[in-house]
TrEMBL record, chain A:
<dbReference type="InterPro" id="IPR016167">
    <property type="entry name" value="FAD-bd_PCMH_sub1"/>
</dbReference>
<dbReference type="Pfam" id="PF03450">
    <property type="entry name" value="CO_deh_flav_C"/>
</dbReference>
<dbReference type="GO" id="GO:0016491">
    <property type="term" value="F:oxidoreductase activity"/>
</dbReference>
<dbReference type="Pfam" id="PF00941">
    <property type="entry name" value="FAD_binding_5"/>
</dbReference>
<feature type="domain" description="FAD-binding PCMH-type">
    <location>
        <begin position="1"/>
        <end position="169"/>
    </location>
</feature>
<dbReference type="InterPro" id="IPR036318">
    <property type="entry name" value="FAD-bd_PCMH-like_sf"/>
</dbReference>
<protein>
    <submittedName>
        <fullName>Carbon-monoxide dehydrogenase medium subunit</fullName>
    </submittedName>
</protein>
<keyword id="KW-0285">Flavoprotein</keyword>
<dbReference type="InterPro" id="IPR002346">
    <property type="entry name" value="Mopterin_DH_FAD-bd"/>
</dbReference>
UniProtKB/TrEMBL annotation, chain B:
<protein>
    <submittedName>
        <fullName>Carbon-monoxide dehydrogenase small subunit</fullName>
    </submittedName>
</protein>
<feature type="domain" description="2Fe-2S ferredoxin-type">
    <location>
        <begin position="1"/>
        <end position="78"/>
    </location>
</feature>
<dbReference type="InterPro" id="IPR051452">
    <property type="entry name" value="Diverse_Oxidoreductases"/>
</dbReference>
<dbReference type="InterPro" id="IPR036010">
    <property type="entry name" value="2Fe-2S_ferredoxin-like_sf"/>
</dbReference>
<keyword id="KW-0411">Iron-sulfur</keyword>
<dbReference type="Pfam" id="PF00111">
    <property type="entry name" value="Fer2"/>
</dbReference>
<dbReference type="InterPro" id="IPR012675">
    <property type="entry name" value="Beta-grasp_dom_sf"/>
</dbReference>
<dbReference type="InterPro" id="IPR006058">
    <property type="entry name" value="2Fe2S_fd_BS"/>
</dbReference>
<dbReference type="GO" id="GO:0016491">
    <property type="term" value="F:oxidoreductase activity"/>
</dbReference>
């Protein structure tokens, strides 16, 4: 096995082009588990931990561009006010040790249906910035995942960053698990209400082959919310929203829970997230 | 491959390192520092917790080459002090396997927060599993060390 250790982004892209079967590693919280358990023996590891631009974030108007290598801890500490939904999800990732190392870019690269960062990125209509020696392209998160642990990432591409509009309020994230820490989601749900644009974004985790949006639920809420006077959400609207979110999922029975439980739990999470997010805007 | 890093203040070198092996393996098997424990090898248990450039991490999830040129502090490199004394005097050590990781995690918590609340303690130690104590004595130890 080779250990490729670029120190610049150009070197990293050149290395990936020359070694398309090299596995990128940043925080190592997914890749090292596979190596430790002999589940994977790639011909090379491509260590991205020395590529400084990956650990930077910046603003472009009201858009944020966050490098793929920014760890969850920094998402919480530095971006909690601008990306509240993602920060809520980041707080539920693993443990302090895992949040010190794990990155959103790694979460996207692993493309697990249970990735905690995915629902809030979906709800916020984020874009993933992919790069190779051929150039840069931006892919909406919604189009990024193609199946369990599969994405549109080409063999010569690396995840450079994600781009998302700052929110400050109106975002929520909720996750079901057996305890607060060290839990792979049984199911999760993210909601983003934008009172200025009057848009609703949703993201469902761990309840379909990929993270998915609940588009019918979004359209229903856009029409039903009292955007002008911001009156309370009628219970019937919240219940119907929960039903539509559950209907958008395609869960399976597995060791973490049954499909029926996941559907039920999603309807509850969606209803609660709606009330919390709306109250936060009133 | 060869890996050079600073461990507990000393320049160390490990040879014949397989690029897929972990920092934990390098510390225990190549550098003779068995304080960091090898249990789950998947970042669940925290018993291999070390400081990497001042940040607590699971050394089982750091690729050996990622430690090249970095600064590592293991439980062996922490001065014996209030944290270890508090673990001893409160009975927070039973089989002892989780203790090195917990000592590093508590050392970090108290360096960041001298007077942690109980929720702060629980959050800081959420990544360290203990199968003996039921955690109550460990919480006592942190409260005592913080006093």
């Amino acid at each position: 096995m080779d250990f490729l250790q670029p120190s610049t982004w150009d070197e990293a892209l050149a290395a990936k082009a020359a070694h398309p079967d090299a596995v990128p590693i940043a925080g190592g919280t997914d890749v090292m588990v596979e190596l430790n358990f002999d589940r994977r023996r790639p011909p090379a590891l491509l260590d991205l931990s020395r590529v400084a631009p990956l650990t930077e974030w910046g603003t472009d108007g009201d858009m944020l561009r966050v490098g793929a290598g920014v760890p969850y801890r920094r998402i919480i500490e530095e971006l909690g006010g601008r990306l509240p939904g993602l920060a809520m999800a980041a707080r539920t990732v693993g443990s302090p040790q895992i949040r010190n190392r794990g990155t959103v870019g790694g979460n996207l690269g692993s493309a697990s249906p249970a990735g905690d960062a995915h629902p809030p990125l979906l709800a916020a209509r984020a874009e993933v910035e992919l790069a190779s020696v051929r150039g840069v392209r931006r892919v909406p998160v919604e189009s990024f995942f193609t199946g369990p642990k599969r994405s549109v990432l080409a063999p010569d591409e690396l995840i450079a960053a994600f781009r998302v509009r700052t929110a400050r309020a109106g975002e929520q994230f909720a996750k079901i698990g057996t305890r607060n820490a060290m839990v792979i989601a049984v199911c999760s749900f993210a909601l983003a209400l934008d009172p200025v644009r009057r848009t609703v974004g949703t993201g469902i985790g761990s309840a379909a082959p990929t993270p998915v949006r609940a588009t019918a639920a979004e359209a229903f809420l856009v029409a039903e919310l009292d955007w002008d006077s911001r009156g309370a959400v009628p219970p019937g609207v919240a219940a119907e929203f929960g039903r539509l979110v559950a209907a958008a999922a395609a869960p399976i029975d597995d060791v973490r829970g049954t499909a029926a439980y996941r559907r039920h739990a999603l309807s509850v999470l969606a209803r609660r997230a709606l009330v919390w997010a709306w109250e936060g805007l009133r | 491959m060869r890996v050079n890093c600073t461990v507990n203040g000393e320049k160390r070198q490990a040879d014949d390192v397989w690029p897929g092996e972990s920092l934990l393996y390098v510390l225990r098997e190549r550098l003779g520092l068995p304080g960091s424990k090898n249990a789950c090898e998947q970042g669940e248990c925290g018993s291999c917790t070390v400081y990497l450039d001042g940040t607590p991490v699971c050394s089982c999830l750091v690729a050996a080459g990622q430690a090249e040129g970095r600064d590592v502090v293991t439980v062996e490199g922490l001065e014996f002090g209030r944290v270890q004394e508090a673990f001893l005097s409160t009975g927070a050590v039973q089989c002892g396997f989780c203790t090195p990781g917990l000592v590093v995690a508590v050392h970090d918590l108290l360096a960041r927060n001298e007077r942690p609340s109980d929720p702060d303690i629980r959050e800081a130690l959420a990544g360290n599993l203990c199968r003996c104590t039921g955690y109550e004595k460990i919480l006592d130890a942190v409260r005592l060390a913080a006093r």
